Amino acid sequence: MESVLNKFLQDARFGLGANQKTTVVLGNEAADLDSMASAVTYAYFLKRKGLAENPVPVINIPINDFKLRTEAVFLFKEAGVDPANLISVDDVDLDALYGKGNLALILTDHNKIGAHQEKYKDAVAGILDHHADDGDYPAGIDTDIRPVGSACTLVAERYLNTGEDLLDDSIATLLLGTILLDTVNLDVQAGRVKPEDEKAALALIGKKGIDREGLFEKLQFEKFNVSSLGSYDLLRKDYKEWNLGGKMCGIGSVLMPVSDWFKKDRAIVASFEKYRNERSLDVLLAMNAFTDPEFTRNLVVYVPDSGLRKKLVAFLENSDLGLERLDTSGIKDPEKIDAYNQKNLGISRKKLQPMLKDFFD
Ligand SMILES: [Mn+2]
């Protein structure tokens, strides 16, 4: 499938400049699939319908972070869109556009502009969203804020109502895939789906003959498929850090067995050191969780300071975590890192953090 969206995105990028009116269609700062797919498909709709001046869809994260959203990488490719064509917030000079009075913003998948973009608030000209209405936008603008399961449902309705001629396989795949993922395949038990989502999704399936179950299963799989990511990206995909009693402590949550990770990256100690050094951490942990076939947790502890390492390891080994040492002999510099199977499955990052705080205090 070669998508019409590629040419649209290339033209939009080519036409970027501060001296012409630009309608930036912007998803939220978490930039999940819904934010990205709704911005791209809605901007294209506005363009083809002549409903906005020079609409440009913008992904609200650095483009380097796009690959961490593995389900989005999959769905855009499945829809025939080359991810290299996507326009990120780093590609657009919002300050310059705003400064020249040439910026109009249409928000999708959020209705309160992100903290970093608050200075452009009075440029918000339209909103398409399914979150609770904060009412924090200019009065009198065009909004459609309804509590449906996916912002893509609101976009799909527009195509189905007044733009069916524009609804090709690519756009239908992006919209349907996102609606299915957001509503857990329209499952009422999951509590996300609303009648509007079901109506839009079934209309897309009926018109385009898309394999609903196949698409949903692939999306669910790809969401948790981190095999394409290197150690650096695995660590940062779902990462949190804290200052605990004066020590900087970071914990990455990684959806992969430590044994697989060691096989994938034999220089994993160097990867941990690079990540730790960049963030000036004293302690870098990885909490690995996976189902194989039973739910399992592993823990990796990396502390370069040998005195601190000795104390922390003793604390963790004597805690309720239920740690069993894992073999590190297959990797480079195995003596510099500690890896465990964590038998107490009830201790997640949320629970480990206060335990560490007590230790460092
Ligand atoms: Mn959403």
The total of helices stands at: 13
User: What is the H/E order?
Assistant: HEHEHHEEEHHHHHEEHHEEHEEH
Biggest sheet overview? 6 strands, mixed
Beta-strand portion reads: 15-25%
Q: CATH topology of the largest domain, anyone?
A: inorganic pyrophosphatase (n-terminal core)
- Compute the number of strand runs: 11
- Distinct ligands, ions and cofactors found in the model: manganese (II) ion
Which parts are unreliable, with pLDDT below 50 for 5 consecutive residues or more? none
Q: Report the helical percentage.
A: 40-55%
How many separate structural domains? 2
Taking all residues together, what is the mean pLDDT?
96
What's the CATH architecture of the largest domain? Answer: Alpha-Beta Complex
Shape: globular
- Report strand order across the widest sheet: 6-7-8-9-11-10
Report on this structure:
The protein is of the alpha/beta class and 361 residues long. Helix content is 40%, strand content 18%.
What does this entry show, briefly?
The chain is α/β, with parallel strands linked by helices and 361 residues long.
Please write out the topology.
Layout (H helix, E strand, L loop, with lengths): L3 H11 L7 E5 L6 H17 L5 E4 L11 H9 L15 H6 L3 E6 L15 E6 L12 E4 L5 H12 L6 H14 L12 H14 L3 H13 L6 H7 L1 E6 L2 E8 L3 H7 L3 H11 L4 E9 L3 E8 L3 H12 L5 E3 L12 E5 L6 H12 L1
Parallel strand pairs: 1-2, 1-3, 3-4, 4-5, 7-8
Antiparallel strand pairs: 6-7, 8-9, 9-11, 10-11
Helix pairs in contact: 2-5, 2-6, 3-8, 5-6, 5-7, 6-7, 6-8
The chain binds manganese (II) ion.
The site of manganese (II) ion has 5 residues, from loops.
